[in-house]
Design a protein that fits this description.
225 residues, alpha/beta, 3-stranded antiparallel sheet, 6 helices
C-alpha cells in the first residue's frame, strides 16, 4: 500500500497506525484497545461463550490486535478457536515493534503469543496456543474463495467506506453471508445507513448496538437459521 503510515497514541493509551493522506486509522483514535474489546469481543465472540469450538474469519487482520485478544479469551474460556485473518497489505515488523502491543498484556503467554502471531508463515495453519489456531491469508477480499457455511463469526474490520468504499460492497456481504453458518454473525464498528441496507439485502438481520467510545452506534448482522 503506497500510503504513508505513522504510529499514534490513542485516547486509552494504546497505539494504532495513522495514514495522514487518508485521515484514517487502523483503530479508533478514541481507544484502539477499547474499540477491539467492545466491537469484536463483547458483541461478537461473547455470543459464542457457551460454544466449545468457534471458527472466526477476520476481514482486515492488520495489527493482529483482534486476533491476540481473541486468543486470550479462548484460553480464559477454554474454547477451541480457529481464526482465519485476511490481509492484503501486511503491517511491517518495524511497525509491530513500534505499536508495542506486548505491553498491553500482563501475562507472559499473551506477550509471547502476540509475537508468534506475527512471526508465523502466511497461508498455513499454525498453532499459537492449545486453544487457538491461526491462518493468516495474504489476499484481497475480492479474490478470496469462500467455503459455504464455514464460519460462526466474522470480524469485519476493513478501513471505513469513506476511504475504502470497494471493501463495503453488496457482493462482498453476499459472499460473507454464504460462508457463515446458520445463526452466525458479522460484527463491525461501522453503522452507516448504506452499509446496513446492503447487509440486509445480502440476507442479514441487522441489529444496531451502542458503539465503542467515540462512536454512537456499531452494527451486528445475523444469519438467522
Amino acid at each position: 500500500m503506497q500510503v504513508k503510515r505513522e504510529i499514534i497514541v490513542t485516547a486509552d493509551g494504546s497505539k494504532t497506525i495513522h495514514m495522514p493522506e487518508w485521515n484514517e486509522n487502523y483503530h479508533s483514535s478514541h481507544g484502539a484497545l477499547q474499540e477491539a474489546e467492545h466491537v469484536f469481543l463483547k458483541y461478537g465472540l461473547e455470543c459464542f461463550k457457551d460454544q466449545k469450538e468457534v471458527s472466526i474469519f477476520e476481514v482486515g487482520f492488520g495489527t493482529g490486535l483482534n486476533a491476540i485478544l481473541t486468543c486470550e479469551e479462548a484460553e480464559i474460556n477454554q474454547q477451541n478457536i480457529h481464526y482465519d485473518g485476511l490481509e492484503a497489505y501486511p503491517v511491517s515488523a518495524e511497525e509491530i515493534e513500534a505499536l508495542d502491543y506486548v505491553s498491553l498484556f500482563e501475562n507472559r503467554e499473551s506477550k509471547a503469543n502476540y509475537l508468534k502471531i506475527h512471526a508465523v508463515s502466511w497461508d498455513s495453519n499454525e498453532i499459537i496456543s492449545p486453544s487457538f489456531t491461526l491462518r493468516k491469508i495474504l489476499q484481497k477480499l475480492e479474490k478470496f474463495t469462500f467455503e459455504a457455511e464455514k464460519y460462526d463469526l466474522i470480524y469485519f474490520d476493513a478501513f471505513g467506506p469513506r476511504t475504502q468504499e470497494d471493501m463495503w460492497q453488496l457482493a462482498h456481504f453476499e459472499k460473507l453471508f454464504h460462508t457463515l453458518k446458520p445463526n452466525g454473525i458479522l460484527v463491525t464498528y461501522c453503522a452507516k445507513g448504506q452499509v446496513k441496507r446492503d447487509l440486509k439485502s445480502a440476507g442479514f438481520t441487522i441489529e444496531a448496538l451502542p458503539g465503542p467510545p467515540g462512536k454512537r452506534e456499531m452494527t451486528r448482522a445475523w444469519k438467522k437459521a
